[in-house]
Design brief:
Elements lengths: L1 H4 L4 H12 L12 H10 L1 E3 L6 H12 L2 E3 L8 E3 L10 E3 L2 H5 L4 H5 L2 H11 L4 E10 L21 E7 L10 E4 L16 H8 L4 E4 L6 E4 L5 E3 L7 E9 L17 E2 L2 E2 L11
Helix pairs in contact: 3-7
């Protein structure tokens, strides 16, 4: 994790990813995932319409509404019921590893075969589900900070993330923003927060996208591309996310948190892909 963060150049990162991927198991490609794979490769993201049913979205949202959250930037404030009882100054309220993986449909969504096939094509190897998370983005009137500013993720030499909105998201409730094509552009690759002005200057304002949509909106994205979570202004946003990588991620659980199960919602659960969370 920490060694790869020091590799800044895009060609060097890709070469290292190829070397690592060559040593890992492969995942069979699915023809029905070809369009999703192509969009992920060309644009850096691909929408996933119909990934969840409205009922599944409702069950996931209601589940997280009953769980206690925490402020990862301020652990000293303890746990609280989000979003209504979030302490003042909290921008993001996260959930524990076990609570996330135990959420209704979480494992099935993360193991969706179309998603896995598209991700494997991007990674060049069978993916590892190295981090699953969910969080409330709390509406606030403060200045953007941390991941609310443009940046590149450096979670591995190569990785893809799945995003699922569990609440309706409009321009006032913190849409995810992504700069199309930047996963392949070797500019502004140093690890730091980026201003909107320099992003527009280097990559073009036309490529600065904002993803809004009803609860259930889902997409996969190469978040080495420049992106941010826009600070919500009028209402909170609940989001579920899965990180797929070549190697295990330092932010995931230190040991598996749930007993291995062979399937969920009728979908097979691959023990290699899920080894970080399931034992």
């Amino acid at each position: 994790m920490y060694a790869q963060r020091r590799v800044v150049g895009m060609p060097e990162r890709n070469a290292a990813a190829d070397r690592l991927a060559a040593t890992l198991p492969k995942y069979p490609s699915r023809p029905e995932a070809a369009d999703t794979s192509g969009r992920l490769d060309s644009d850096g993201y691909a929408m996933l319409p119909g990934l969840l049913s409205p009922q599944q979205v409702k069950e996931m949202r209601e589940y997280f509404e009953t769980r206690l959250a925490f402020d990862g930037y301020r652990p000293e404030v303890g746990k609280f019921k989000a979003p209504d009882n979030a302490p003042k100054g909290t921008h993001v309220a996260n959930f524990d590893h076990l609570d996330v993986v135990s959420a209704p449909h979480a494992l099935a969504i993360a193991n969706n075969p179309i998603v896995l096939s598209a991700v494997a094509e991007a990674l060049g190897a069978k993916p590892t589900i190295s981090y699953m998370t969910a969080w409330w983005s709390i509406a606030h009137g403060e200045a953007a900070k941390e991941a609310e500013l443009y940046h590149r993720d450096v979670d591995d030499f190569r990785f893809v993330k799945l995003f699922v909105y569990l609440t309706d998201v409009d321009e006032g409730s913190g849409p995810h923003a992504f700069v199309r094509g930047t996963h392949k552009i070797d500019k502004l690759t140093e690890i730091r927060r980026l201003s909107e002005a320099e992003v527009a200057r280097e990559f073009g304002a036309d490529n600065m996208l904002s993803f809004t949509g009803p609860a259930g909106t889902a997409f996969i994205e190469n978040t080495y591309g420049v992106h941010r979570g826009v600070p919500p202004k009028t209402r909170t946003r609940l989001l579920f996310q899965v990180l797929y990588s070549l190697a295990e991620y330092v932010g995931g659980p230190k040991r598996p948190v749930m007993k291995y199960q062979t399937e969920q919602n009728g979908l097979a659960i691959d023990p290699y892909i899920n080894r970080v969370y399931l034992r």
